[in-house]
Amino acid sequence: MSFKGKVIVITGAGSGIGAAAVRFFAKKEAFVVLADISVEKMVDIADSIPMECMIQETDVSKYEQMQSLVVAVIKKYGRIDVWVNNAGIGPNHMLKTADHSLQDWERVIAVNQSGVFYGMKVVLPSDVKARQRKYRECRFTCRIKSLRQ
Ligand SMILES: NC(=O)c1ccc[n+]([C@@H]2O[C@H](COP(=O)([O-])OP(=O)(O)OC[C@H]3O[C@@H](n4cnc5c(N)ncnc54)[C@H](O)[C@@H]3O)[C@@H](O)[C@H]2O)c1
User: Fold this and answer.
1) pLDDT digit string (tens) for 41-98?
2) Is 19's C-beta closer than 6 angstroms to any atom of ligand 1?
3) pTM confidence score
4) Is 91 in the pocket of ligand 1 (CB under 6 A)?
């Protein structure tokens, strides 16, 4: 599959699976947007790839930051082709359930669940609009073709 020229947004792009995804899509000549809570990590990854890429400091658990991310990407590239909801955190595995603090629990839910929901909520409207436009264009073309026949 060709990703050449596609606009790919990856949350949690600063390390691990997200960073591997950045390298993968960069190799495929896509425009990669790195979104992570850590600017330092993103700069390291961006420096390691040959393609131009965009960096946006984003905490996925903050809805308004996710909205700003979409606005910034649309402003720069005009569209979003792929959105990877990758950012996530894990609890301290060494602790027993009762020993986890409520703050840790709430942070995991905020990042791993709300973060993914926010990602879908901010990006799907632009995707849906683009699909509807394509569908309308396609229906219009089909109608013209059938009138001509
Ligand atoms: N590695 C695994 O074995 C494994 C297994 C199952 C699921 N996962 C999931 O895959 C995803 C990536 O895992 P990984 O091992 O690459 O993790 P990782 O810890 O190496 O990388 C996570 C990245 O997310 C960023 N991040 C953390 N909180 C953030 C926030 N609030 N907003 C934006 N960015 C934030 C971190 O700075 C980091 O760069 C996670 O969602 C993880 O839960 C990983």
Assistant:
1) 999 999 999 888 999 999 999 999 999 999 999 999 999 999 999 999 987 778 888 9
2) no
3) 0.88
4) no
Tokens 């396609």 sit at which residue? 138
Q: Please name the amino acid found at residue 5.
A: G
* HSE toward the beta carbon, residue 131, CA cutoff 13 A: 7
For the Cβ of 37 lying below 6 angstroms from any atom of ligand 1, the answer is: yes
From 36, 43, 85, mutation site for ligand 1 pocket: most ligand atoms within 8 A of C-beta:
36
In the numeric block, the tokens 């990006």 are attached to: 123
Domains of the chain: 7-148 (3.40.50.720)
pLDDT of residue 142: 47
